């Protein structure tokens, strides 16, 4: 019998995690997607990886003005409220560094139900052998979600 010892201060369960994200222009059109298979970690850590991956991709692409949305309110508050370097979490500190460097970037909370595309991209990471995947063209099931969102937006 194999045993693993996980020492944590959080009560969050450790389960296999995947994360995904989508980068869209100011009209909501697909630019690119990404996903990552993380293995076993907490939900909060997985969410932080999703934010950091998105930030680093955007930074590499050279975008000037960016609004990052996350459906994890606790992480958004921790990242936005903590003073630079005060957090004990290295992922939060790294995200804060990127945001401090990119003056016209902001991180906001977005309700989970507005995040269907990112959730669908994350599920695709379960069948991947790579840790980080960049998806240039939306897969068919993602395109269907985007079309539905655009249809709903044009009605209002």
From TrEMBL:
> PANTHER family this protein is in?
OS05G0353850 PROTEIN (PTHR47723), POLYNUCLEOTIDYL TRANSFERASE, RIBONUCLEASE H-LIKE SUPERFAMILY PROTEIN (PTHR47723:SF19)
Q: Extract the Pfam families matched here.
A: RVT_3
Q: Which Gene3D superfamilies match?
A: Ribonuclease H-like superfamily/Ribonuclease H
**By what name is this protein known?**
RNase H type-1 domain-containing protein
Residue intervals of the RNase H type-1 domain? 20-125
What is the species of this protein? Gossypium arboreum
Say which domain of life the source belongs to. Eukaryota
InterPro entries, sorted: RNase_H-like, RNase_H-like_dom_plant, RNaseH-like_sf, RNaseH_domain, RNaseH_sf
Q: Where are the transmembrane segments?
A: none
The opening ranks of the lineage are:
Eukaryota, Viridiplantae, Streptophyta, Embryophyta, Tracheophyta
